[in-house]
Design a protein that fits this description.
Blueprint lengths: L6 E5 L4 E7 L2 E8 L7 E4 L4 E5 L3 E6 L4 E7 L6 E7 L2 E6 L3 E6 L8 E4 L4 E7 L4 E6 L2 E7 L5 E4 L16 E6 L5 E5 L3 E5 L10 E4 L5 E6 L7 E6 L4 E5 L9 E3 L6 E9 L2 E8 L3 E6 L5 E6 L4 E6 L1
Antiparallel strand pairs: 1-2, 1-28, 2-3, 4-5, 5-6, 6-7, 8-9, 9-10, 10-11, 12-13, 13-14, 14-15, 16-17, 17-18, 18-19, 20-21, 21-22, 22-23, 24-25, 25-26, 26-27
Length: 308
C-alpha cells in the first residue's frame, strides 16, 4: 500500500488518524476531523478507504485527505460491514440484506441477497469470489458472488449435557490461507470450520469463561491454525486449534475496555499484536512473550483498525 503510516484508526465520532510506530512511541497524523457518526472502516485500494455510516458508504482519499464519492443504501437497517470486490461494493445490513452496488455505473439497480435476520458480520473470502455472513441466531454462511447462492451453512454445536441448545451469535469471521473459516461468538467460543468437508459442525473449538468475543484476526502468513481474539472484558487471547486443550495458549492483558479490533504487525523485526479498545487506548503486545510493549491514550472511542 502507498500509506506512509503503519495503521489507520477510525473513531465513532468520525475522526481518522494515521499511526506510525516509532521506537517506544506512537506517532499520529490527523486524516479526518470529527464530522459524522461512523460505524465501519475498510480498504478500497492503496490510496483510499471506505467509511460507512448507518446508511452511506463514503470513499475517502488518504493522499488528498477528502471524501471523493458517496453511495447510499436504501434499506430499513444499518450498515454493519462493507468490502470492495472487483467493480462492486458489497455491504451487509443488520436487517439481513446484503446489497451489491456497482461502483461506476450508479444508474444500474443494486442487487440484493437475503441472508437471514439479525446480521452482525460480513467478510470477504480473499482468494475466492465468495463472502461469509453471520449474526444473532444466524450461523456462518458462505455465499457465491456469481450465483448469489449459499454454498455452506454451519450447523449449531451439539446440545450440552442437559440437552439444552447452545447459543449462536457470530461477532466476527476470518479465513486462513487454506480457506478454513474461523468464527468468533459473543458467548466466548471461537470455532474452526472446514467448508470443503462434509462436516457442517465445527472441526475444532476453543473457549473462554465468563466473557464474549468481539474481534478476531487470523495470522495467514504465520500459521493456518492460530488466531488472536479480543474479548468484551478487555483480554486478548491467542488460540491454537492444533492443541488438545480448548484453553488459550497465552493471554495479552492490560486493557480495561472491550477490544474493538485486533491484528498482527511487525515492529522492530518481531511479530506483535496491536489492538484498540473502548478504554480509548492503543496497545502493542509481543506475540511470543505476551508482554505489553507500548500503550497510549487516544482521545475518542475507536471502532476500527486497518493495518498496512
Amino acid at each position: 500500500m502507498a500509506w506512509t503510516y503503519d495503521a489507520i484508526i477510525g473513531f465513532s465520532n468520525g475522526m481518522l488518524k494515521g499511526v506510525e510506530l516509532k521506537k517506544n512511541k506512537f506517532k499520529y497524523l490527523n486524516l479526518l476531523d470529527a464530522s459524522l457518526a461512523q460505524n465501519n472502516l475498510s480498504i478500497y485500494d492503496e490510496n483510499k478507504v471506505i467509511i460507512t455510516t448507518s446508511k452511506k458508504m463514503l470513499l475517502y482519499d488518504l493522499q488528498k485527505k477528502k471524501m471523493c464519492k458517496k453511495y447510499i443504501i436504501r434499506e430499513s437497517g444499518n450498515i454493519i460491514g462493507v468490502f470492495k470486490k472487483d467493480n462492486v461494493l458489497i455491504a451487509g445490513v443488520d436487517n439481513g440484506m446484503v446489497v451489491i452496488k456497482p461502483i461506476k455505473q450508479t444508474k444500474i439497480a443494486s442487487e440484493k441477497i437475503s441472508t437471514g435476520s439479525h446480521l452482525s458480520c460480513i467478510r470477504e473470502v480473499l482468494t475466492l469470489d465468495k463472502f461469509a455472513t453471520g449474526g444473532n441466531e444466524n450461523p456462518l454462511k458462505i455465499w457465491d458472488l456469481e450465483t448469489k447462492k449459499v454454498e455452506f451453512t454451519a450447523k449449531s454445536p451439539k446440545p450440552d449435557m442437559l440437552q439444552l441448545k447452545l447459543p449462536c451469535y457470530v461477532s466476527d469471521i476470518q479465513f486462513f490461507n487454506n480457506n478454513k473459516a474461523v468464527v468468533a461468538h459473543r458467548h466466548g467460543v471461537v470455532d474452526l470450520h472446514d467448508p470443503l468437508s462434509s462436516q457442517r459442525r465445527p472441526v475444532a473449538s476453543c473457549k473462554a469463561e465468563n466473557t464474549g468475543f468481539v474481534s478476531l484476526r487470523t495470522m495467514p502468513d504465520y500459521s493456518d491454525y492460530e488466531v488472536i481474539v479480543g474479548s468484551s472484558k478487555g483480554c486478548i487471547y491467542h488460540y491454537d486449534f492444533r492443541g488438545r486443550s480448548t484453553l488459550p495458549v497465552k493471554t495479552f492483558r492490560g486493557s480495561t475496555g472491550s477490544v474493538k479490533s485486533v491484528s498482527c504487525i511487525n515492529y522492530l523485526n518481531q511479530m506483535h499484536v496491536i489492538s484498540i479498545s473502548l478504554d480509548s487506548h492503543i496497545r502493542l503486545h509481543d506475540l511470543n512473550s505476551g508482554k505489553l510493549t507500548m500503550q497510549d491514550y487516544i482521545v475518542g472511542k475507536p471502532y476500527a483498525l486497518l493495518i498496512k
